[in-house]
Amino acid sequence: MRRDAQAVILLLVGGGMLRLAWTGAYLDYVKPYAFWLIVPAGVLLVAVAAITGVQAWQDRADADDGHGHGHGEPKVAWLLLAPVVGMLLVAPGALGSYEAERTGTVVGAEESRSNYPALPDDVDPVPLTLLDYAARAIFDEGETLEGHRIQLRGFVLYDGDEPQLARMVVSCCAADARPVKIGFEGDVPEDLAPDQWIEVVGTYTPRQGRDEINGELVPYIEVESVTPIEAPDNEYQ
Amino acid sequence: MTRPTAPMPHNGAVSADLADTAAPDAPPRPRRRRGLTSIEALALLLVFGLTARPGLTDLFAAPAAQAWSARFVAVCVQAFPFLVLGVALSAAIAAFVPADFFHRAVPKRTALAVPVAGVAGAVLPACECASVPVAGALVRRGVAPAAAFTFMLASPAINPIVVVSTFVAFPGAPEMVGARGAASLLAAVTIGWLWAKLGKTEWLRLPQHRHHDDGKWAAFWAAIRHDFLHAGGYLVIGAAIAAGLNTLVPETWLAPIADDPVLGVLALAVLAVLVSICSESDAFVAASLTQFSPTAKLAFMVVGPFIDVKLAAMQAGTFGRRFAARFAPAAFIAAVAAAVLMGAVWL
Fold first, then answer.
1. Quick one: A140 and A205 in the same domain?
2. Domain count of chain A?
3. Neighboring chain A residues of B275 at a CB cutoff of 8 Å
4. Which of A89, A112, A135 is the last residue of a domain?
5. A188-233: per-residue pLDDT in tens?
6. A167: CB partners within 8 A, 6+ apart
7. Beta-carbon separation of A6 and B229 below 8 A
8. Would you say residue A235 lies in a domain?
């Protein structure tokens, strides 16, 4: 691989990462804090590309003595074009119902949590994350949820014929995404499409089910209203 | 940056950092002889990529393909910054740290240098993608390979970020932090001593950096460029395999094994190899695998930073395939054994 080709590949990888950071699309793949890792790394790669390009240009002015083809450089570097194609051309969206239907609910990670602060009385309905609601419902028997209207936001998935509310929990990058799932008690619109984002307002119900994939408990919510919404910028939690 | 203005012998400047450059007095090569040059191939690929975009989108429209590509891109986007950090550190070691520094800093006797290197791993607050190129730079700088490997294995498991994230992931179970640190250090030091005893230098094939007459900064930039392109290419292989396994292997195979104490440990150890999660966050994933015993979760967290699909690819790229073929199973066995031992003692 010639050095000018190396410069182009470095530029594409660094530029692709900067573009993900610029457009906010990086949130489909990694945690928000990763912005502060992606940007410096992208800038450094672009700088290396620029320096490499300048050197290749200067050397061209020198005698062409057989270095132009720069052999010994790893051919494996061509593979770096694959993530570039992924980032810039394919640009897959955030993981959704397809994954969630194949992965067990993640609520067990909250089992040893000991602190369930009381919900505010002056907010109605109280917005909660799905993981927080599930942990309070399962491991605290819903004590802090009683007497409040709760607002949850997530996407729709189907467990057999039964619609559920879910959100992907990511600890590092989308490769470790796992869903947290919540069932609906009461009537929900029948035409909910998988992956449609909805806002659910409702109240706590002691009803619980089990996720067949890993045997974990799935809490339910007594549904008052279901409103379709736009997907948030950061679809993960 | 500055370049020497004096006439250089055979243009040995920057590109000469690579192995087997042309002989000094080789006749100039006519460029056309090789047919398609790499820059032309690249241009063709770019044109193809731009025109084929609608086709690519269709090709990846199936949910499974979407999921695979999202995971593949995610692993790359998460790993590249740490890889850049690692190659920048390793380039700095190669370019700016005097050669005799490590001779003074590292104990002469390998048996002693190995545990010192293990504990020193705590100073590199990054995940395993960074520690592989740094270990490569240490070996090139004349550090005993046994000590460099111990550093490479211990660092992603015992550095402060990982300790804190493990502590947060297992609230009310601080013994998990201790068990993880102890098991990782024990296994890393064991591997180091094992290499000192049985390892053969001819298994190692480090990509050589040439000597530079062009100044330290030129050496620094050339080393970053070369190491990133090299290790990054291998990382892409690992990321593609890990994303494929994550997408294709259903999670349901785990459930029936969880109750068996022996199979449970082995299952999570194998899972750690397959999923290739960053060591900074694997504790959260381990904590969510509630059906499994604490020892099995510990095995997941000890094996992950030692060896996984992504790491094996990078180690093969950095140290050679013959090395990786021997190192990977040894690291896996040592990690599982140490986890079981520490699990029996602590958990």
1. yes
2. 2
3. 175-176
4. A89
5. 888 889 999 999 999 999 999 988 888 889 999 999 999 999 999 9
6. A129, A130, A131, A153, A154, A155, A179, A180, A235, A236, A237
7. yes
8. no
- In B, minimum Cα distance to A39 occurs at B81
ipTM exceeding cut-off 0.90 for this assembly: yes
Q: Is residue A234 in a domain? A: no
Residue A68 has pLDDT above 70, yes or no: no
What is the C-alpha to C-alpha distance for residues B49 and A93, in angstroms, rounded to an integer? 19
pLDDT tens track for A56-65: 888 776 645 4
Lowest mean pLDDT: which of A28-37, A59-68, B45-54, B157-166?
A59-68
Give the residue on B whose Cα is nearest the Cα of A16. B77
Same domain? For A57 and A112 the reply is no
Kindly list the distances between the CA atom of residue B71 and the CA atoms of A58, A92, B240, B296, in Å, as whole numbers in the listed order. Answer: 40, 9, 8, 25
Residue ranges making up the domain that contains A77: 3-89
- With contacts defined as CB-CB under 8 Å, which chain B residues touch A13? 80, 232
- Whether residue A113 is predicted with pLDDT greater than 70 in this model: the reply is yes
**Lowest-confidence pick of A34-48, B68-82, B117-131, B153-167:** B117-131
A8 and A67 in a single domain? The answer is yes
CA angle, corner B183, sides to B178 and B188, nearest 5?
Answer: 130
| A65, A122: one domain | no
- In sequence order, what are the beta bridge partners of A157? A164
